[in-house]
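Hi Prof. W.,

I finally got the Cytochrome bc1 complex cytochrome c subunit prediction working! I wasn't sure whether to trim anything, so I left the full sequence exactly as given:
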Amino acid sequence: MKALSQKRRHPLAALVLLALALLLSGGLYAVATATNEAQAATSTSYSAEDIAEGQKLFVSNCATCHGTNAEGSVDGPSLIGVGAAAVDFQVGTGRMPMQMQGVQAQLKPGQFNDEQTMQLSAYVASLGAGPAIPEDEYLDVSKGDAANGAKVFLANCAMCHNAAGVGGALTRGKFAPTLMGVSERHIYGAMLTGPQNMPVFSDVNITPEEKRDVITYLKSQEVNTPVGGFALGSLGPVSEGLLIWTLGLVIVIAFTLWLTSRAA
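And this is what came out:
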């Protein structure tokens, strides 16, 4: 027993344990690195020519705020690692480049065409791994479930964008824009990247299939025919109650004035 005890406490035991620990940590690092490289390959699968042209466009139009190497400045955040999806959304919807500094980038006609937007996305994606532009499979609303999309939307988005997706006011002069008429790609990109005041809904929070369901629901809202009456901002009982209260008060005041005028 004494001999076995001495073997278990051999001076080389610490070195063996250290070697095993290094092998384990090295293996975990290799797996993590491979995952990051796979993500980078997904988000930077552009030609060298596209990246070069995108860099020219970036230096000419974006570097003033975001820095020559997209490292950011006091006027704009760093774009390293934001991915192609963020650029595709911001530039594709005309929000970037901004016309002027403000509390929120305004929707406006795009300054760049589709090819130039793709080239800018390619350049920014080459700077670091980030969310890629979604695949067409997840933009096909014919494969989506509008009923499930409504559930996901009401649970995660309606508090800002309204249950009907027509947008709404936020604090300090900000607002959630309407989602009616927005392209499938840009709706998906907004959920994936969280522009402006919007939170990021990663694939862990909302799966790609659920994102497609949300888009399907929103597209169904665009073609739904109102059954009648005034929409009143689609705010439900809040605006409806206010309208009824205001009309009722006006009627009571008018009736009171009519009665007093007859008595006089």
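The radius of gyration is 28 Å. Does that look reasonable to you?

Thanks,
D.
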